[in-house]
Design goal:
The chain has 800 residues and is of the alpha+beta class. Helix 10 (575-592) packs parallel to helix 11 and helix 11 (615-624) runs parallel beside helix 12. 49% of the residues are buried. The protein is globular. Helix content is 19%, strand content 26%. Helix 11 (615-624) links the parallel strand 25 and strand 26. The strands form 7 sheets. Strands 8, 9, 10, 11, 13, 16 and 17 form a 7-stranded antiparallel beta sheet that branches. A 7-stranded parallel beta sheet has the order 22-21-20-19-18-26-25. The chain has a 7-stranded antiparallel beta sheet with strand order 27-28-29-34-31-32-35. The longest helix has 20 residues, at 523-542. Among the domains are: 31-370, Beta-galactosidase, Chain A, domain 5, CATH 2.70.98; 663-797, Sandwich (Immunoglobulin-like). It comes from Chrysochromulina tobinii. This is Alpha-galactosidase.
């Protein structure tokens, strides 16, 4: 038996104290801005901090993680000082700016574009410096007192700063549609720093002011940052290019940083921005025009021409973060008050390089800053949009316990219709569904590539019509009318859901007679902004539940995006392989995102009537997706046929199972054994906060896709479930809900948590079977923890 002293040593050896871990039990610390005796400003929330000086200019001099989960020490991110941002400005009334053509792809050169900090000019760099200090000559180590700090002749200079509270980006109510009770807007603190151009070196943009906004979020190792640019002068000013963040990053920090933005679909990739895999290399979707130039070779540190580089650790390269727009933004600011808020960066400093913890951190960021992704609405995806078909599926959905239905692509549903007879019919059907407790919505194709767009309403490639794709230009009056028609339709029908396929995906379009932009370099920004405004309008006016196959969740407030599946997957002819791949996609997507945020699908044509002939397949589809916390698009003309009472019962059983365990199934996933088609698959949901309510703190799902019995000893890591060493856990096992005796299911059992915060279980899975276990805390020893003698952790009957 281990006594308290031995337990304390074990805790210290592991370096893990849940009460000090923001991902488990650490109390929330408010974000603050303080002024130190030396005049520097410290923006901190106890997890990360950013320190600034205000003289001779405003600059970041320290950026750090306050505690490393790996080593216990602090992590300094920076090797040196950089501008707070960069901007390229010109005067379009002089004519030169508008005559220039398509911007060259910045990343044609792998080396970043900084300016020689010992000089006074930004010529040759990625833009005019906004703040920052000059004078540092070596970038291996930052030493504040070593250099003679100066301000460049064309640098924007610090004018003032103020603090403010975060504001909600879109309408949302905590708890709606079974979502989390997250604070909205998210808790935190804004630091708003105002810069002005240098007198005598500003030409037509002397009236421009740049406000750099840093928003630190309570309880997260994350800050957001964006630029607001205003023009109080008498001349129009063009913002040609913009660098939101420029940092000289230390070698040991790079792999701990997650840098994302709210701009451009498909571009909020996990660590590093990349061009699309299917790059046509020409035309509207050329990869170089859609990629983020993010990480660069640092010319001040890594350039080794003539063996002059101080950079010795060649295992880590591209140490300059210089976050820019993929194209432009080329945004015009009108005289006497023109203003624009540019893209937002989300910057997370992870306290470890361990992959699961990094992605748990990202999922926590998503749940906190974008809590609408935690909404979990049970809906069926109907392919029959006739009035009779709608009412039949609505009644079935209500009967089995579902909460909504979407009218699918191919169903005949048209939310852009202005036909009063059709609108009245849909309104009547929606009212009928609502009377049964069923929310309604449907599908629309925003790209309108099915022939509804012609002439200059199409996106014309900057490389010429021969390189164009058959999609709409989202900036035209035609497309605005299409979006207005949808708003009107939802208003008149009372529908509360919308799926928008083919939203704006980053196409670069040439200027035509119909375009709402004045230059090709502005085409991405204008179209993307139109889409974001559309989604925010739907949230504001109708509280619309939005499923969108691109990541507009951090810009427009959308709810769901695909969980990694492809169109090719839907055409896999083997249903067994199809379901294995569904579990694979779910396993992988839940690494990066909450299970509620991504959707998968199951095509009901794989189980044709009578559905009672396909109960095994249907139950596997329900256990694989709904049983693991994902609400997929079960898609077909009906949920069950009249001659299949067992199928109806199966729907009821799994719906009730999901609702019973909804809180834990909506929680984070710990990834144990990835689906391979050759062995046991294992994933486990965890929620440390559930123990106070007596709910399961973990939920395990196991699958055996093979034709042989599989026996395994599994280690279940329960640190993030809040389970303390020595505490006793109860495991309530289950399998098939329709036929519980179909294969062996373990008896209810108990286990003691080991000093590594895990339990060990022995499992045996019959061929082509699945098991699940709800894990509940039985007893906790918060202060004095004593462990029973070995063996412990192996499942054993309750009371043993």
């Amino acid at each position: 038996m281990l006594g308290p002293c031995a337990m304390l040593l074990a805790f210290q050896a592991l370096g893990h104290l849940p009460s000090e871990d923001f991902l488990v039990d650490k109390p929330l610390v408010s974000s603050t801005l303080t002024k130190d005796a030396d005049g520097s400003l410290l923006l901190s929330n106890g997890l990360i901090s950013r320190r600034f000086v205000t003289t001779p200019n405003f600059a970041t001099v320290a950026l750090r993680s306050e505690a490393s989960f790996d080593t216990g020490g602090v992590l300094e991110v920076l090797r040196g000082v950089s501008p707070e941002a960069r901007i390229t400005l010109s005067c379009p009334d002089e004519g030169a700016a508008h005559r220039r053509g398509l911007l060259p792809y910045a990343a044609d050169a792998l080396e970043g574009q900084t300016d020689p900090n010992v000089t006074g000019s930004s010529i040759g760099s990625a833009g005019i410096a906004i703040g920052g200090l000059r004078g540092q000559m070596r970038y291996a180590i930052y030493e504040e007192d070593r250099w003679n700090w100066t301000v460049g002749e064309d640098d924007f200079v610090y004018e003032s700063h103020e603090t403010a509270q975060p504001k909600a980006a879109w309408a949302w109510t905590p708890g709606q549609r079974h979502s989390s009770m997250a604070a909205w807007p998210p808790l935190g603190l804004q630091l708003r720093v105002r810069f002005m151009p240098p007198a005598g070196h500003c030409g037509c943009y002397c009236g421009v002011r740049v406000t750099v906004v840093y928003e630190l979020h309570d309880g997260l190792p994350t800050f957001s940052k964006w630029l607001e640019v205003s023009n109080g002068g008498d001349h129009e000013v063009l913002v040609e290019t913009l660098v939101t963040e420029e940092l000289h990053v230390a070698e040991d920090a790079k792999d701990r940083l997650l840098v994302e933005t709210d701009y451009m679909p498909r571009k909020t990739v996990w660590k590093y921005a990349q061009p699309p895999a299917a790059d046509p290399h020409v035309g509207s979707y050329e990869g170089s025009r859609m990629n983020y130039p993010t990480w660069w070779i640092d010319p001040d540190y890594e350039d080794d021409v003539n063996d002059q580089s101080l950079h010795a650790n060649l295992a880590v390269t591209a140490l300059l973060l210089q976050l820019q727009y993929p194209l432009g933004p080329w945004q015009l600011l009108a005289a006497n008050g023109g203003a624009y808020r540019f893209m937002t960066m989300f910057f997370t400093i992870c306290d470890t390089t361990e992959a699961e913890r990094q992605w748990l951190t990202r999922r926590r960021v998503m749940r906190t800053l974008f809590p609408q992704v935690t909404e979990s609405l049970l809906y069926f995806y109907s392919t029959n949009a006739t009035s009779a078909g709608i009412r039949r599926v609505a009644a079935q959905a209500a009967e089995v316990g579902f909460e909504a239905m979407l009218l699918s692509f191919g169903s005949g549903f048209d939310p852009a219709s202005t036909d009063p007879t059709y609108i009245a019919s849909v309104a009547s059907d929606t009212s009928f569904a609502k009377s049964l407790g069923i929310e309604m919505g449907g599908y629309t194709l925003m790209q309108l590539s099915y022939g509804g767009v012609t002439g200059d309403d199409k996106c014309i490639s900057p490389d010429g019509p021969g390189s164009s794709v058959d999609i709409a230009d989202f900036s035209t009056a035609y497309h605005q009318q299409y979006r207005d028609n949808i708003v009107s339709f939802l208003n008149k029908t009372g529908m509360a859901m919308l799926e928008t396929d083919g939203p704006y995906e980053g196409a670069t379009c040439a200027v035509t007679s119909k375009s709402g932009f004045r230059h090709v370099n502005n085409s991405q920004l204008v179209q993307y902004a139109a889409n974001v405004d559309f989604y925010r309008q739907l949230k504001r006016e109708f509280n619309t539940f939005l499923t969108v196959p691109d990541p507009y969740w951090n810009s427009g407030g959308t709810n769901r995006e695909p969980a990694g599946y492809t169109d090719a997957w839907n055409h896999v002819d083997s249903t067994a392989e199809y379901l294995q791949m569904a579990r694979l996609y779910l396993y992988d997507s839940s690494i990066f995102s909450p299970t509620t945020e991504g959707w998968l699908g199951f095509e009901m044509y794989r189980t044709p009537p009578p559905l009672d002939d396909h109960l095994e397949t249907l139950e596997e589809a329900l256990a694989s997706l709904l049983g693991q916390g994902n609400i997929p698009c079960y898609r077909g003309p009906e949920m069950y046929d009249d001659g299949s009472p067992q199928a109806k019962q199966l729907w009821k059983l799994w719906t009730a199972h999901y609702k019973r365990y909804r809180p834990i199934l909506s929680s984070d996933v710990i990834h144990i054994s990835r689906p391979t088609g050759r062995g046991v698959e294992a994933a486990m949901h965890v929620n440390a906060s559930a123990r106070a309510a007596g709910e399961p703190i973990a939920f395990l799902n196991l699958f055996n896709p093979t034709a042989a019995t599989k026996v395994a000893t599994l280690r279940l890591p329960l640190y993030y479930a809040g389970a303390l060493p020595g505490s006793r856990l109860a495991l309530e096992w289950g399998g098939s809900l329709l036929n519980p005796s179909k294969w062996p299911v373990p008896a209810q059992s108990a286990a003691r948590v080991l000093v590594d915060y895990s339990i060990r279980i022995n499992v045996s899975l019959a061929p082509h079977s699945f098991l699940w276990a709800a894990i509940t805390a039985e007893e906790y020893f918060e202060r004095r923890i004593e462990l029973e003698t070995l063996p412990f952790g192996l499942g054993r009957p309750l009371g043993a």
